Amino acid sequence: MKLIRTKGRGAQAATKTLAALERRGGAALDAVLPAVKRIVANVRKRGDRALLAYAAEFDGLVGPSAVRVTPEEMTAAWTALDPALRDALRTAAAQIRGFAKRQMPRSWSTAPVRGLKTGQLVRPLDCVGCYVPSGRHPLPSTLLMTAIPAQVAGVKRIVVVSPKPAPETLAAAHLLGITEFYRLGGAHAVAALAYGTATLPHVDKIVGPGNLYVTAAKRLVAFDCAIDMLAGPTEIVVTSERGRAADIASDLVAQAEHDPEALAIFVTTREDLARAVIAETKIRSRKNPVAREALQRNGVVIVAGSVAEARTITNRLAAEHLTVDAASDLEWVENAGSVFVGRWSAQPLGDYISGPNHTLPTGGMARVRGGLSVNDFVKLITVQEYTVEGVRTLGPKAALLAEAEGLIGHAEAIRLRSGSRGLRHNRTAAHTKGRARG
User: Has 261 been annotated as catalytic?
Assistant: First the structure.
């Protein structure tokens, strides 16, 4: 890990490093975009012919029947699973479901003035596609994190796609009662979800993380099919003044092992703690080649000049995962995907079993949104209902606003409801004004 100081001789280099970290996220996608464009365009134009050709090339599958996972396969995977792991999956699912239920928005109605009712209806999306990566590691937890909030929201059709899905992922699908599962991945799977083919009918929204090709494909289809976010490599920031070096280093290594491109940052004012954390990460990543590579490439320890500066830097970074020392630190946290408080809150607990979603914004997008939630699977439909009394109370003011914008038809539609006298008055005034101009 690289150590930088915001004060003294290293200040200028620190400024450049922080600026680069804030701009992270886009360049890597641009590199794969030409290839992804060809794949997405081909699936959109040729449908099943293109999808099945890519399935044979990239996924080793021949024909539609090989692409679709049967319920029997999911049941068999669940039955063959170690009982302790089945219990762990049940517990994780219950935690995630309970959290999603608490997040669920509600329909409501109110009467702000006599004669007017306003409110909102909460309605689920009709169909969604959950992308579950299956590259370096099987990720049944991602299936739980993407499908359960959709179920809580009431989504009728939930489609799962996953390239070469592991038995654990198939078992998780059985646990949730998933009936539509395709062993597909990459840009062609995203294109099929967005535009539909004979084998895989389209969905209204695509959620879930993936590699650069998946993320680039989501960016390309986003104007035709809704997406959750463009999730990049895993990120962790730990901001601490009194943490234990071993605890901090273990979390940095844990998140770094996801991907050689993972970003791992420690922010503190204490140089002694900074150096201790660097030493611990070297020890703890010795037998973990992916984590070791990520820490060498993208590991940064920032020694700030003050606690206030450390907090400012943390919010500028807007990390996917953030660990802080105590609950009182939540008062200054403005930008983070998910916050872990105190030494006992190991970040990997949030990856699996705490309940909050582990599909989180990366690349600085935590400045503008939070993680995946039940809110990603519902629509809020606003409602308004007037009586004549309500129109007479608010209508004249609304008509004035319409006229100020030059929208006379708007004003007439309002005045029509409040009585023809008001409408005739408006027409007469407009006619007189027109003659005066003539």
Answer: no
CB 286 within 8 A of CB 267: no
CA distance 147 to 113: 41
Helix (H, G, I), strand (E, B) or coil at 106: coil
Q: How wide is the angle at C-alpha 310 spanned by C-alphas 230 and 346, nearest 5°?
A: 60
Query: pLDDT over 90 for what percent of the chain?
Result: 86
3-state SS class at 133: coil
Q: Is 331 helix (H, G, I), strand (E, B) or coil?
A: helix
Q: Active site includes 258? A: no
pTM: 0.90
Domain CATH code at residue 171: 3.40.50.1980
- Does residue 168 sit in helix, strand or coil? helix
Nearest to residue 302, comparing CAs of 291, 315, 313? 313
Q: pLDDT per residue over 359-368, tens digit each?
A: 999 999 999 9
- Percent of the chain with pLDDT strictly greater than 70: 95
Catalytic residue among 180, 261, 280, 320: 320
Name the residue type at position 191.
Answer: A
Mean per-residue pLDDT of the chain: 93
Residue 430's pLDDT band (cuts 50, 70, 90) = very low
Same domain, yes or no, for 11 and 59? no
Looking at residues 13-26, what average pLDDT do you find?
Answer: 85
- Residues 267 and 399 placed together within one structural domain of the fold: no
